[in-house]
Amino acid sequence: MTDTDAVVAGRPEGTPSRRGTPGRQVPAALLLPAVLGLMFLVLPLAGLLIRAPWATLPQRLATPGVLTALRLSLQCATLATLLCLALGVPLAWLLARVDFPGRRLVRALVTVPLVLPPVVGGVALLLVFGRRGLLGGWLDSTFGITLPFTTTGVVLAEAFVAMPFLIIAVEGALRGADRRYEEAAATLGAGRWTTFTHVTLPLVGPGIAAGAVLCWARALGEFGATITFAGNYPGTTQTMPLAVYLALETDLDAAIVLSLILLTVSVAILAGLRDRWISST
Amino acid sequence: MTSHRIRALLTALAVSALVAATGCGGNDTTGAQTGASATAGATGTVNVFAAASLTETFTKLGKDFEAAHPGTRVKFNFAGSSALATQINQGAPADVFASAAPKNMATVTDAGNADGAPTTFVKNQLVIAVPKGNPNGVKDLADLTRPGVKVALCAEQVPCGAAAKKALDTGGVELTPVTLEQDVKAALSKVKLGEVDAALVYRTDAKAAAADVEGIEFPESAGAVNDYPIVALKGARNAAGAKAFVAYVLSDRGKAVLTEAGFQVP
Fold first, then answer.
1. Interface pTM (ipTM) of the complex?
2. CA of B159 to nearest chain A CA: how many angstroms apart?
3. B151 and B178 in contact (C-beta within 8 Å)?
């Protein structure tokens, strides 16, 4: 706080903003890179919008297969996010709250899918869950379950790539949360599980929601691991990013239309969720 | 850290970003100038955009070309033909384009970016790639429709997929693959990894992976031969180098390297 005050010291007081915080002139050293950053992120989108074949848009939307791919994308990203929540939140809790040997190593391992090129991630998944993989062979011979080239495979590939986003967000939220509430619950006789479900989870709810949104967005855009591990077949494993990639092979306009559909739907869903679940401050 | 230091750091970052940006522009112009001055003879750098299936052969040809034309350097950009065509039409600095299909070459010539008409320099044919030892005893296309035989094809949008569809149609074989891969190498790697029992790939790809897979010839592939056209580009910074490289690929030496890899020369 005092640092911020020092920066703006000597400046005349601006008009108070709507949110009630005293308005202060934004330092140019922050504003300039911020605007550059925004332009850098938004200009490619503008490129897509400008180049989009608006005249033929309606008939392109009606192309068979587009809706199938979109539905599959939304389903798989959502299932992948649920899987990530079920496994990732406990893992984040473990990393944030339990002091065990090798915690730093585990924390580093969790970020491996972030660093790994997704295609390599897909190959790695094949080596474990593939027909000749470490676990895949056993799954196949014991239960007759094969994962590559199935919709389940898509969900797994997306979850593999997206889970670190959730874990890092939730762990950050847990570390930032005030532990005194948990300690108070413990002194009042609550066990660790009860504390977790009744105190910790509500406390870091917004952090979990933010992590889930990141995770869902990453899963929705997943390409490399999906096409490598789950393959590409319309209706079962061809998600929108895969459809976009293949459309690019023949028809740039079709690829742009598909990209815009994916963008519009995902932005609409994310904006809707943000207003409802994440306090917009 | 005090706020002053943060501000100084941000300013420094912004300044260095600007310097970097202008620096890049400067380098580009220098490159263009050296390219332009090299048009007198086959010297300087030749930028070759070539289909992914030419990776092994063209790398070898590039080294031979450099040895035959001292003072030249061949730089390759290997990728899917359609991606390369898009890059060229968007102004990528390419001197030569070698495509795995006439369709992607047409994208470039239609946009008026080729210098003269393309020449077909090789043809490639499909084979059935199966794991080494052929555990399923696959002999022809019809064997691929047997229950329990998992097959990977290339997607129809890419050249190897279009050829596969043509071959299957010719043979009247109705086949449901488990996956439609984005390129021929991806289809081949599914065989290598043992995830599928067979894939339709180019003879050259099967040959390059002879340690892991076997290529089975089948008669229907004769009707689905893929032509590879090559052309020097209009926007070439090194026009003389581009022409010399195209001529080298079409020469007897070039043909020898390509046929050795399993290509057929027209």
1. 0.75
2. 9
3. yes
Residue B130 pLDDT more than 60? yes
CB contact under 8 A, A250 and B182: no
pLDDT score at A279:
52
Q: Give the pLDDT of residue B70.
A: 92
Give the closest-approach CA distance of B132 to chain A in angstroms. 15
Q: Is the pLDDT of residue B2 over 60?
A: no
Q: What is the CATH number of domain B30-121+228-260?
A: 3.40.190.10
Q: Choosing among A249, A250, A252, A258, which should be mutated to test the B contact, i.e. which has the most B CBs within 10 A?
A: A249
Q: Which stretches in chain A have pLDDT values below 50?
A: 1-18, 280-281
- Shortest CA gap B41–chain A (Å): 36
Pairing of strands B72-79, B44-51: parallel
B185/A45 Cα distance (integer angstroms): 31
Amino acid letter at A250?
Answer: T
In CATH, which superfamily holds the domain spanning B126-224? Answer: Periplasmic binding protein-like II (3.40.190.10)
Note whether A62 contacts B: Cβ–Cβ < 8 A.
no
- The pLDDT of residue B35 is above 50: no
Between the alpha carbon of residue A276 and those of residues A3, A216, A271, A279, B121, the distances in Å are: 34, 16, 9, 8, 61
Q: How confident is the model at residue B229 (pLDDT cuts 50, 70, 90)?
A: very high
Which among A32, A123, A249 has CB closest to B82? A249
Chain B environment of A223 (Cβ under 8 Å):
none
Tokens of A2: 């005092």
Between B53 and B192, residue with greater pLDDT? B192
- β-strands B96-98, B226-232 pairing: antiparallel
The arithmetic mean of pLDDT across residues B89-101, rounded, is 92
Same fold, B30-121+228-260 and B126-224: yes
Burial code of A151-170, b = ≥16 C-beta within 10 A, e = fewer?
Answer: bbbbbbbbbbbbbbbbbbbb
**For position A178, what pLDDT does the model report?**
87
List the domain boundaries for chain A: 68-277
pLDDT (tens digit per residue) in B158-189: 888 989 999 999 999 999 999 999 888 899 99
Contact B7 A132 (CB under 8 A): no
pTM for this one?
0.77
Q: Is the dihedral of CA A154, A159, A160, A162 positive or negative?
A: positive
Cβ-defined contact of A29 to B7 (cutoff 8 Å): yes
A131·B194 Cβ contact <8 A: yes
CA distance A258 to chain B (A): 15
Q: Inspect the interface and report whether the beta carbons of A249 and B177 lie closer than 8 Å.
A: no
Listed ranges A104-108, B11-15, B89-93; the one with the highest mean pLDDT: A104-108
Does residue A181 belong to the interface with chain B, where contact is any CB pair within 8 Å?
A: no
Please state which CATH number belongs to domain A68-277: 1.10.3720.10
